[in-house]
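agent> call fold_tool(seq_1)
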Amino acid sequence: MQRYGFVLGLKHDQIAEYKRIHADVWPDVLKQIKKSNIANYSIFLKEPENLLFAYYEYMGTDHDADMAAMAEDPRTQEWWAICMPMQSPLETRREGEWWAEMDEVFHID
């Protein structure tokens, strides 16, 4: 199992809508998340900075392939098309990233 953390901005005027849609994520999107070997997936919001922190545990053996399969899923693409205009990627993210991946510096079970 591998832990992943990501950070992303959220537009101030989109906070209520982002919370609303995430209170009832589409079943097909949830199914694809599990199919992509993701467990314990959470998104946290830090206000007033409006930063989203996402955390998940990857249970598979080929993260890149599973993330590519998720990105190719039509319902996930529809979901992302709704979410992405609400988001504000960090200027410091790596090339090709939307959510900026974070390095783990500490963990204890």
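agent> call fold_tool(seq_2)
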Amino acid sequence: MKSAGKGFWFGSGMALALAAGVSAAPIRVVIFNTCGPSSFVHPIAQQTPLLKTMFKDPAAANLQFPLIPSEGFTVDSVGVATNGTTADGHNLILALPTHDVVICANNTDFSKLFTTTDQLAFQAWIAKKGHGVVAFHGASDDNGIWLWKMSFFGAKFNGHSSGKASVLADSTPKNVSDPDFQMINAGLTKLTTVDDEWYSFQANPRDLPGLHVLSTLDEGTYTVGNKMGDHPISWFRAPPDSGRFYYTGAGHDWKYFKDTYWLRRQVYNAVLWASGYVPPVIAVEAKPVAGQSDFSSQGTRSSLTIRINRDGKHTVQVRGLDGRGVAMEKGVGMREYTFGNLEPNSVYAVLVTANGKTSRSLVKLR
């Protein structure tokens, strides 16, 4: 038996067990697309429509098997796509009560866009559970003075260089075993090559309290502006009683969202996670999905892949119709298991146990 259940990357099997997301209301997202006065302006005007499309129609963004909340997303934007003023920051503050997640989209000199009063209002909003901030790239390039923001984001820009670099999923055991880490990295390989403008930071955020690194850069694969050695590039915070935060140093240009699956998928997952969305209890689909190859034969044997889209502990069993146990795996959080060396043209029972309940489905291999 080959199992891919120890991580979040996709295995080679094709049979799919996919649960649809469940939510009582749409996840309300607002994109803040303004840069500080007299700061460098990233191509926000082009990236905002791409971000909106990604959440309104994940399939159009070519996301493979994403979790999709049943009520979907609403996506608004606030601010001018150029240098702004504190009036733009105040408009974001006015929008916060009707939104769950704020995307800080390349907002260089973010701190300068808010008065002291509005800074405190922003802090109060994110302090409430169920709220989230998803930030990328220029949002850490800030010459303003807002000490809370610098601490909350976890790092400050300290130079950059462009090129193709190897991006690795963090391998620290405390991160890999964390369900939040697994949800934000769901659907991503452990190693990928990404073309972008890569930030270095004034200090390594890895050891900050409550911060979990998602992805790092291999500095040996590109020309580094300011070497860090251990070079985190994406991370998150998940305080138990307040809002959630995600940041990635990637995403300099709209074309990187268009061309880079890793970036699109991690940001999509992060918005879903930041909203407090909880994946549903697993439901196994026995029938192939139209247009997809759900079952594949490998030589004279077949394989079955089952994806678990939920939090918490679970057990997955594959049994013959005579009750004979063929394979079993146990895990926590979102997982993918590939069971190989199965008989083609045979029917198996798939049992998934979670929260004290067991679902049973029959799957026919070909």
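agent> summarizing second result for user.
The chain has eight helices and 16 strands. The first strand starts at residue 27 and ends at 32.
agent> awaiting next instruction.
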